[in-house]
From TrEMBL:
Pfam families cross-referenced by the UniProt entry: MDMPI_N
Gene3D superfamilies, alphabetized: dinb family like domain (1.20.120.450)
Name used for this protein in its record: TIGR03086 family protein
SUPFAM superfamilies: DinB/YfiT-like putative metalloenzymes
Domain Mycothiol-dependent maleylpyruvate isomerase metal-binding positions: 24-134
Length: 196
């Protein structure tokens, strides 16, 4: 497997969890600090848009605001969010599967960054937030060990910046022999044993 496969797997996890989440659970709290399930789903959706624009090197609209909702979800009934997310997730995966897309520089929210770093960050982002939604609704998320190692590497690469920026909480200690994905959750400031 390569990074393109890992991105696809991570997007598939997120889409699967969103599809399995009843809309009547959208007001529930999540382990993602101060985010409800609705806000976490919207955050994943927004991530699809930003990741796709990073892959294609298209500029993103500076008027977009997370609190307004992912652009493709604005005005869409919540009952249709899962299918819209599936469509956008598939488009994002296709964009990151294009030849050479992981090479050179791209952008994330207007800041230039190596494309490979963006891809790694977003692969981790989709998997961790998929876990947030799954945990918030009382489900387990089965992450293959190889993907878990990739997510852990991605989280560790941005954890100091994430904590400084306030998007990661303090690291949660986990056992040395814990699976890689569990370690990734701890490094991202999640308690792997969190329950609603």
């Amino acid at each position: 497997m390569d990074h393109t496969d890992h991105m696809q797997q991570s997007i598939d996890l997120a889409v699967s969890v969103i599809r399995g989440t009843p809309v009547d659970r959208y007001d529930d709290p999540s382990p993602c600090a101060d985010f409800t399930v609705r806000q976490t789903v919207n955050h994943i959706a927004f991530g699809f848009v930003l990741a796709q624009r990073s892959a294609t090197r298209e500029p993103w609209d500076e008027t977009w605001q997370l609190e307004d909702g992912a652009p493709f979800l604005i005005g869409v009934p919540e009952s249709e969010w899962a299918e819209k997310c599936a469509e956008e997730g598939a488009a994002t995966a296709r964009a990151w599967a294009e030849p050479g897309v992981w090479d050179g520089d791209s952008h994330m929210g207007g800041s230039p960054m190596p494309a490979a770093a963006i891809g790694s960050m977003m692969t981790s982002e989709f998997a961790v937030h998929a876990w947030d939604v799954a945990a918030a609704t009382g489900r387990r998320l089965d992450v293959p060990e190889e993907l878990g190692r990739v997510v852990l590497d991605g989280v560790l690469a941005i954890a100091p910046m994430g904590r400084d920026g306030g998007w990661f909480g303090a690291e949660v200690p986990v056992a040395d022999d814990a699976p890689a994905f569990t370690k990734a959750l701890g490094a991202a400031g999640r308690d792997p044993n969190w329950t609603p």
